[in-house]
Amino acid sequence: MDLGIRGRKAIVAGGSAGLGAASAQALAAEGVELFISARGRERLEDFAAQVAQETGAKVTAVVADHGTEAGRATLLAACPEPDILVITCSPPAMTEDYLEITPQDYRDSVETTLIGPIELMRATLEGMAERGFGRVVNIATIGAKAPWQARLLSGPTRSALLNFVHAVSKRYIARNVTMNNLLPGMFHTATSLERFTQMAAEKGTTYEQEEFAFAKKRLRIPAGRFGQPEELAPFCAMLCGAQASFITGQSLVIDGGGITSLL
């Protein structure tokens, strides 16, 4: 299916690995020109070169932290008029005991997962509306909808982000600008690989055994496993497509069946 976005320009903030990288690759396959940002230069530039080679898309690597004012300025200088804005970041550390979280931990989380996305949207939405096309997708977390003590550095701020998107989306839908969120559960990423490989080494088990135990017993994921980034990326691309003009203010859960709703 042709999503009708060939030649469009997209910022993928925080897109050098994991779910952001897979989403960037899905957009590149649709012929979108990419501006991918991340804090680490080497991995970002290697990934950008890989995507360009595999898809033929034009890809610009922008070393920037969108959780900072300077980083956002650098990113927007590289692509001042994006048609598509995809925002994600490396998940903040899990914290088993909320008493361990410091005020500075919360401030850092707010800057990266709430203020950063809001400011990027605020800087680009009016331009999208003036040009008559815009797509915003925040790749957030299931923790925004299903509170969990281990995710207190990402869930609460993402809940606030969902609130913001829902409210502001109504302002732009009539001008062909949509704003939506994806809420992933547990996925195979560099972060999960590091965490569960370490747990396996400490317990004398395997990564797969730790994954199954965490998914099936602790989180009670009916699928019995973590998701793959490639299982989320097509939904991100779809929400960025020309045909997605009647979907806005939504938060789509992709978590292997852990959270369900009749409404």
From TrEMBL:
Lineage: superkingdom: Bacteria
UniProt protein name: SDR family oxidoreductase
Pfam families in the record: adh_short_C2
Organism of this sequence: Sphingoaurantiacus capsulatus
Family: Belongs to the short-chain dehydrogenases/reductases (SDR) family.
PANTHER family: 3-OXOACYL-(ACYL-CARRIER-PROTEIN) REDUCTASE (PTHR42879), NADPH-DEPENDENT REDUCTASE BACG (PTHR42879:SF6)
